[in-house]
Design a protein that fits this description.
- The protein is globular and about 50 Å long.
- The longest helix is centred in the first third of the chain and has 25 residues.
- With 85 residues, it is mainly α.
- It is built from 3 helices and no strands.
- Helix 1 packs antiparallel against helix 2.
Amino acid sequence: MSSEAALKSNRKICHEARDLFFECIDSNNGDQKKCRLEWKNFEKNCPASWVAHFLRKHKFERYKEDLIKDGYLSKDGDDNPTKRV
């Protein structure tokens, strides 16, 4: 297997592990204790810097969803001046 093909395969495995972990987290209301197996698989199959990046990104996406739900941010990401405090 070429180096490029190996990298592509590793990325795919990492992304699948990431998706399974976040799917588990989201379906269990953020309870990581219920997703230990998925977490171990995520950590094992992704570089540590990617894990940290994906965790930050996921947390930020949940934060943005809360802002939209509470009316502080519109769905397109712009500020909603009617709800400013």
